[in-house]
Amino acid sequence: MSPSKQEHDEEEQAFLSPGPAPNDAVWSRKSTTSRKATRYLRLALEIAMAIVIGLFVANTVREKSQVKPSPVPKLPRKTYTFLPDPQYVSEDMLFDEQDTLHTLHSWIPLSADARGYVQIPDHDSYDILNEPYTVPINRTTDGPAYMMAVFHQLHCLSYIVNHYQQGYAGTELTEEVAHHSSHCFDYLRQSIMCAGDTNLEGETEAGPGWGSEHECVNYDALLNWANERSAMKWRNALLPGEAIL
């Protein structure tokens, strides 16, 4: 080979990229394997997340489907501060039956116009509803209606207060009062548990249980809804002077 040809080949070899070293080849194979493993792991995680999300959505739909629709809409909420109100409970009212009756008479506006009975014209379309009561719809006609639980609860509490005072006044307990009171005690127990008021009360100058805010159903909105669907109104001239719920 001529010197010029030899020099040319050596110069060309100097610019060629050297072949990969054996260790580099091993690293390349390991890197490829690692990338594949990462892809598979990511795919598995994505599939697992999709399954979890799917199960969550399915459970949410199932829970919603289990809640039977009610004709009563979801009423707005309002914050109330619990405080003693002498209009509804007087500290000395239990010493005298007339004071008790007079105080309980002021509870009447807390109940709906029809004493809590509301008409649901399409009641047959709601699986959640039992058979309605038959009550006066007007002065000449009876018809189907339902009692809203909140007004039943107010009646029970009013009834217990009235007969609690009578018991201290020495009135003999009758079978009707005993059975009715027992019903009201258990009805109120279950009502309190059902409402499950989870607002947190703390120590205040107003006394135990007082002075704390509670998020509640807007009671004015509740009364308006009930009164728009009420059966025959019972607040009229026929009421005795000291009527109670």
Task: State the gist of this model.
The chain is mainly alpha-helical and 245 residues long.
Structure description:
The chain is 48% helix and 9% strand. The chain has six helices and five strands. It has helices at residues 3-14, 22-66, 97-105, 149-168, 175-195, 219-228; strands at 77-81, 117-118, 133-136, 142-147, 213-217. Strand 3 (133-136) and strand 4 form a beta hairpin. Helix 3 (97-105) runs antiparallel to helix 4 and helix 4 packs across helix 5 (175-195). The longest helix has 45 residues, at 22-66. It starts with a helix and ends in a 17-residue tail after the last helix. The model has no long low-confidence stretch (mean pLDDT 85).
Task: Describe the secondary structure blueprint for this structure.
Blueprint: H1 3-14, H2 22-66, E1 77-81, H3 97-105, E2 117-118, E3 133-136, E4 142-147, H4 149-168, H5 175-195, E5 213-217, H6 219-228
Antiparallel strand pairs: 1-5, 2-4, 3-4
